[in-house]
Amino acid sequence: MGGAAEREERVSLELSEEIVRSMEPGAVFRDYNCRISSIDFNKNSSNMVTASDDDSIRLYDVATATCLKTVNSKKYGVDLVCFTSHPTTVIYSSRNGWDDSLRLLSLHDNKYLRYFKGHHDRVVSLSLCSAGESFISGSLDRTVLLWDQRVEKCQGLLRVQGRPAAAYDDQGLVFAIAFGGYIRLFDSRMYHKGPFEIFSVGADLSEANVVKFSNDGRLMLLTTMDGHIHVLDSFRGTLVRPSPLLSSSRIIYLTITFSTLQLSTYSVKPVAEDSTLDATFSPDGIYVVSGSGDGSAHAWTVRSGKQVHSWMGGHGNEAPPVIKWAPGSPMFVTGSSELAFVIPDLSKLSAYANRK
Fold it and tell me: Does the keyword Membrane apply (predicted)?
């Protein structure tokens, strides 16, 4: 019992560069037959879910590093998956080439609770509001749809001029939509008025892959196909006064006015056209971990912009891994053709070694 208590005390310490450099794959699951396309954690439990190109959705208990259940979606396929507030209920997108609906699924009894129809091409971005029932989806049909989990029909539609990446902040007050070298911020309650801020990410006009907020909402990151991870301050800047045109069908046409607030840009190997460059903030927002077009993963510190550590691809896989940091934990998870829980190696930490 003494060793267990010591480990619990150690991993609860604040993240540092030493801890990040010590992190290595712990539990590894190699029973996937193909690429893992999405990972998400439930904030109200120790559950994690994955989606993969073998049309499976798998539910894990992170605390014990065990797979609890596998649910197959052979008819529709599966691409992106997100937890609702319930620990065994998810929303996921299809990837079968003929049905681009989203589905609300109970993993407990493998029962569909609701279908969300509105997109006409593959959904490439999916984000749930952790503070309510809302979620947002972006598609290659160049639309971003706003939804309520309790209603099958979309509650709002935004047209964009490229592949969209969308995300809610942690409080659900703001959501971001990125495409074409800009990030647009919307008030969730008045999105029909258009963006209240538009930030430029410089000369990077390549397709947006993912956009995410830090837990405290102060930072955003945007990844692009050219292999760039841009980190921006989400609060500072001049208030933008766009001139949106609002039609009766609630379609918004965006006007390009912007402020430039880029803090840092990290560069990795560009990704293939059919791949996605993923990245994640640590829970404290101090570190960013990203994938790369060569299958490796890299960590940077936001404060200095320097690279802290890198991890080579585990088995020669050149697709960028999906990466997600576990909420409130010194652990992140990577998914390629295998799933790895990356945790601190206590034997490499001086504070731990001195106590031996």
Answer: no
Q: Is there a single domain that holds both residue 178 and residue 118?
A: yes
Number of domains in the chain: 2
- The helix/strand/coil state of 10 is helix
- Its domain, for residue 169, covers 30-290
My answer on whether 166 and 301 are in the same domain is: no
Q: What is the pLDDT of residues 295-347, one digit of tens each?
A: 999 999 998 889 999 998 754 557 899 999 999 899 999 999 999 999 999 88
Same domain as 215, residue 131: yes
What's the burial of 46, exposed, middle or buried (CB within 10 Å: 0-12/13-18/19+)? middle
Cβ pair 319, 52 in contact under 8 A? no
| pLDDT tens per residue across span 107-161 | 999 999 999 999 999 999 999 998 889 999 999 999 999 999 999 999 999 999 9
* Integer Cα distance of 57 and 60 in angstroms: 10
